[in-house]
Amino acid sequence: MSAAAEQMLPLSKPVGRFIGERKKMLIAGKWVPAESGKTFPVYNPATGEEICQVAEGDKADVDKAVKAARKAFESGPWPTMSLSKRGRLMHRIGDLILEHLDELAELESLDNGKPISVARAADVPLSADIFHYMSGWCTKRHGVTIPLNVLYTPGVEYHSYTRLEPVGVVGQIIPWNFPLLMAAWKLGPALACGCTVVLKVAEETPLSALRLGEIMQEAGLPDGVVNIITGFGETAGAALVGHPGVDKIAFTGSTEVGRLIVKAAANDLKKVSLELGGKSPNIVLADADLDIAIPGAASAIFFNHGQCCCAGSRLYVEQQVFDKVVEGVSEQARKIKLGPGLDPKTEMGPMVSEIQQQRVCGYLDSGFKDGAKALTGGKKRDGRGYFVEPTVLVNTRAGMKVVDEEIFGPVVTAMPFKSPDDELINQANNSIYGLAAGIWTRDVSKAHSIAARLKAGTVWINCFNIFDAALPFGGYKQSGWGREMGEAVLEHYTETKAVTIRL
Ligand code: NAP
Ligand code: MG
After folding, report:
1. Residue 12: pLDDT band by 50, 70, 90 thresholds?
2. What is the structure's pLDDT at 5?
3. How many CA within 13 A on the CB side of residue 212?
4. Which of 79, 155, 277, 398 would give a disulfide with 194, using CB separation of 3.0 to 4.6 Å?
5. Does the annotation count 138 as an active-site position?
């Protein structure tokens, strides 16, 4: 073990085995290196040091993985397995995730930088819950019979019914902000519907999904049903999207890459679902319970270091409580304990990578140039690791990059409004995105009428960042196509076949 790796200790024995190891990819039920033999480093964002090397999968490996997934789909047991057996197997994956909760949380914290307390309380249990919830759908979703009324064949009777069939081989591409949870969001519904999968994980954070691959094997998932590729977006990701053997692409990440994926998938008209960026408005009315709204608005932006597609990054506060709310949110920000994710006392870890740290700091510079003022934070933390101070910006308005664009960091822009009228709604909806929104008020009728007028796939009232496996999540406008989770996501992974027989 290198001296650099030793500095990252103490790690538990199961996680320690990742240090320095040249991990392989899961293809056709085997752990194999990249065809090219190439590997690339994975870094600990709290120190900037290398954790380990992983295989650099590219076109050749994607091709092998797609062929394995195709074989598993056309002739393997998964799509035709009894639905209760499929459900039990998926449930077992959820159970095993919980059995390995501490290990997975530690791995996630090491790789992504998030506080281990958060990974333990949120990322890992929610990932298990997706498998548990989706396992139930295996036995509960089916076609229907449909009475016909065919006008041009009078007197003839038909029997018609629909079958919900798996869409086939699915390519799934995920980001680095919730590595294990995004894998679960994607794999859960695809597996429940009987699809087989090639999963391309984010280059920054491949470790927890690789461990999940082992767990799925331990649960008894047949070979080739899930194949996991580590590699870069421009090579492995693009090869997956362009592969003619893939029936559907499910993507979570930036709107910019989402657009590239749609263009690439247009060649053979693959089905595409997209969960993209956001710039969510969070609206505090003067009548809100500020004891809840202030910590709520802070958590809406600072949770996961602002690296959430739904982060409440545009804070709109009714004028008479503006100073109190922004000062309160700033006070919360000042109290947040920054540190390495693996320190149990840490409340906010580093940005996932140096690039992400630079990106966030670039936005801060542009905000200051445009006249924004930081009530707190406003810069990166000097020294090791990719830390950025939680930041509250005022003197901001639409037209500034910090207000219009997704920063994906712990930076909130706060703006006052006069009253909850059309102007506020227009401001809140003035974005290319439409992923989520928050409203804080004691007035129930105002809450519901504002909720109805916001162009967003999710509206949280007197809460924020509330997720459940049963609740659909996804975006209006350029925040995406389709929904994740709930019953809604299953539509992406099934084809409806109408069968008619003349009686
Ligand atoms: P990204 O570039 O969109 O990456 C997401 C995934 O797509 C990664 O697995 C990436 O591979 C892959 N990818 C990149 N280019 C591709 C291509 N041409 N074809 C197929 N796959 C491709 O996001 P990022 O670089 O990680 O972060 C950039 C910005 O995206 C963030 O600042 C944020 O605004 C946004 N973002 C949004 C979400 C969300 O949940 N909606 C999550 C993360 C990031 P690599 O790992 O090699 O890049
Ligand atoms: Mg990238």
Report:
1. very high
2. 45
3. 33
4. 79
5. no
